[in-house]
Design a protein that fits this description.
Chain B: Keywords: Cell membrane, Membrane, Transmembrane, Transmembrane helix, Transport. The structure holds two protein chains of two kinds. By secondary structure, chain A is α/β, with parallel strands linked by helices. In chain A, 50% of the residues lie in helices and 15% in strands. In chain A, strands 6, 7, 8, 9, 10 and 11 form a six-stranded mixed beta sheet that branches. In chain A, strands 3-2-1-4-5 form a five-stranded parallel beta sheet. In chain A, α2 crosses α6 and α6 runs antiparallel to α7. By secondary structure, chain B is mostly helical. Chain B is built from 14 helices and two strands, in the order αααααββααααααααα. A two-stranded antiparallel sheet of chain B has the order 1-2. In chain B, a hairpin with a 3-residue loop joins β1 and β2. The radius of gyration of chain B is 20 Å and the shape is globular. Classes of the chains: A alpha/beta, B mainly alpha.
């Protein structure tokens, strides 16, 4: 009896051992072939904006974080990222998923991941980008340098500048010199006006060559927007207003309510029919690809 | 009498051993849950120091700190609830219901409002602030529930606690509205019980509180037994009622507030854990106190594991999972006590 039991146990142990051995050899071959195939770097991007800078260069990261509110990739690039692994939201990234990807390099946004650099460095070589320093052009160029695609980056920027000149001409034809504008965003709870900082400031007041409405430049330059009350809308005295309404129903209702008010109806831009509804994405995606898509959209608006 | 006590001892010993075993299984299950699949065998190998880079990083850097925090917080909340139920002589007492969590939240909001950089090392001070907030609420509750002739009135303790809790929640809400969006979203997720501590530093911030206060409470088991019989009997048994009550209340505040600081405002564990423990091994504190901590551990670790695995990719805070299970139980208890 005892003997049989010992034989049985040793049989099981043997099975386990052989199973382990097989497992090991399997994983080895798997990683081996992977390395042979991958000439492009396997990039894990911990910023939705850096992801879209990469896409602008025609590089698809193997993994990327998702938008915090959307809980998904940004809608305008979702199609291009269908083979990309979702790494959670940037404030609470899925570290295990990153580790599992075995990226060859990790791109970080200093604002969100600056404190955890050592954690990422343990997984793979890491590059940190400060998105508040310089414009997306600088970020694109430095990425271009890292992936040996400086020419493509320069070309992308040149194309963008060319398009921006075209749209500026269109705008001048439409508005003349009077083109003081403001951009607002309607959320379920509040009304925000964008300042000169990213994401809206640079594209509106530099790339599109529009002038900021009264008081826009007084908004804290370190903040992307300021919350205002409806009553002060007329004080900006804008010739045109760009409006972003959040995707949820509550925000849409809030905008409908706003449109009914006497204050809104009395605005110069509203009277002259110069209110432009623009989608939150790509306009709020401050990246090479996002701004390029927003520029395309602006061209469409002002060609009419 | 002696025979009965021995029988109880034996029963408590067996039940506690069984629950230690269950805890180990739950913890292993939790260690095994995550995006990256690691076989249980590999987990054991890794613990024996033979794991590869990948599994050891996942286990020691990502999963272990979080699970340890959940374990410690579960123990803290379970024991704190047991103390409070004894002191208030009311089986519906719980650090959340008594308003200690609201006070802790108040402390945290003060902390993030004035020192709002969430720098890693600062995590060590968070328990101090939540303890401060919790102690302030406890003090207010004791002052308001104190009767000059009859001492601390257990029933009033709970009612005053509920009122104070509402008041502190209002102040906390007021402060949190002034926070910037990022800190606000942290604070609001914290309030519903999101295990946010993910690093070893967070474990270190919580460990000493539990390591000191939990054994201290256990040593005081006999006092707790006496106190839960009523003040007159307790003083008749030679317990200095007021001094011990304050001391034990402070221990309960410390345990719950430190736990809550790292694990978020998790309610109901302090209510449910002592209840189940009492049912299993009887009402003697030396028997059910350790068990209460163990049950707290099991509930919280399980809830956190469920919250972060089933609803992927959007993890649900453990506090919500606990509340989903705890609320019906609480209502059941309410209906039954009547």
């Amino acid at each position: 009896m005892k003997k049989k039991f010992i034989i049985f146990i040793s049989f099981i142990l043997m099975l386990m051992l052989s199973a382990c051995g097989q497992n090991n050899s399997n994983t080895k071959t798997a990683t081996g072939t992977e390395k042979e195939n991958s000439e492009e770097p396997r990039i894990a991007s911990l910023s939705i904006h850096l992801t879209n800078d990469l896409l602008a260069l025609g590089i698809t990261p193997v993994g990327s974080v998702i938008g915090g509110d959307l809980k998904d990739f940004l809608p305008h690039v979702k199609e291009q990222l269908k083979n990309t692994k979702k790494l959670g939201i940037v404030k609470d990234p899925d570290m295990e998923a990153i580790l599992e990807l075995k990226p060859s390099v990790i791109y970080l946004d200093k604002e969100f991941s600056g404190q955890d650099i050592s954690k990422y460095e343990k997984i793979a070589p890491t590059h940190v980008f400060d998105l508040d320093e310089g414009t997306w052009r600088d970020h694109l160029l430095s990425i271009g340098k890292l992936v040996n695609q400086e020419k493509q980056a320069q070309q992308f920027i040149a194309d963008y500048e060319k398009e921006s000149k075209e749209v500026q001409a269109l705008i001048k034809k439409k508005f003349g010199e009077d083109n003081k504008v403001m951009a607002i965003r309607i959320t379920a709870k509040e009304l925000r006006v964008f300042g000169t900082k990213r994401p809206m400031g640079p594209i509106l007041f530099q790339d599109l060559g529009l002038k900021p409405a009264n008081g826009i430049e007084n908004i804290d330059k370190n903040q992307p927007f300021e919350v205002i009350s409806q009553e002060v809308l007329p004080d900006f005295d804008a010739d045109a207003i760009f409006v972003i309404v959040n995707r949820d129903d509550e925000a849409k209702t809030a905008f409908n309510e706003l449109e009914k008010t006497a204050i809104w109806k009395g605005l110069k831009a509203v009277k002259e029919n110069q209110v432009y509804l623009i989608p939150d994405q790509p306009w709020l995606d401050y990246s090479a690809l996002g701004n390029k898509m927003a520029m395309d959209h602006a061209k469409e608006i002002f060609s009419k | 009498m002696n025979y009965l006590l021995n029988k109880d001892n034996k029963r408590a010993f067996i039940v506690t051993t069984v629950f230690i075993f269950i805890s180990v299984i739950v913890v292993l299950l939790s260690l095994n849950t995550g995006t990256l699949k690691i076989s249980p065998l590999k987990i054991i190998q890794t613990f024996l120091g033979q794991g590869d880079f990948e599994s050891s990083t996942v286990l020691f850097d990502y999963r272990m700190p979080r699970i340890l925090i959940t374990m410690l917080a579960g123990i803290g909340l379970g024991i704190s609830g047991a103390i409070l139920q004894g002191l208030s002589r009311n089986h519906l007492a719980d650090p959340g219901i008594l308003g200690l969590h609201a006070g802790a939240a108040f402390g945290l909001i003060i902390f993030v409002t004035y020192f709002h950089s969430m720098d890693k090392n600062i995590a060590l001070f968070i328990p101090l602030f939540t303890f401060g907030g919790g102690a302030l609420t406890a003090l207010l509750i004791v002052l308001l529930a104190y009767d000059r002739y009859k001492g601390l009135l257990p029933i009033r303790l709970i009612l005053v606690g509920i009122a104070i809790s509402a008041g502190f929640s209002a102040i906390t809400l007021f402060f949190s509205l002034r926070l910037n969006e990022e800190t606000y979203s942290f604070a609001s997720r914290w309030l519903v019980g999101n295990i946010w501590g993910r690093d070893w530093i967070n474990v270190m911030a919580l460990l000493p509180w539990i390591l000191i206060l939990a054994p201290f409470t256990w040593i005081k088991s006999k006092t707790l037994n006496a106190l839960s019989l009523g003040d007159d009997i307790a003083s008749g048994l030679g317990v200095s009622v007021e001094k011990n009550r304050i001391l034990l209340l402070a221990a309960a505040v410390g345990l719950s507030c430190a736990s809550v600081a790292m694990a978020g405002g998790i309610g109901f564990i302090g209510l449910v854990a002592p209840h189940l423990a009492r049912r299993l091994v009887g009402t003697m504190y030396q028997h059910f106190l350790p068990l209460s901590g163990l049950i707290g551990l099991i509930i919280l670790v399980l809830s956190d594991t469920i919250g972060r695995s089933i609803f992927q990719p959007n993890a649900i805070p453990a506090g919500i999972v606990v509340a989903a299970i705890g609320t019906p139980y609480f209502l059941y208890l309410l209906a039954k006590t009547k």
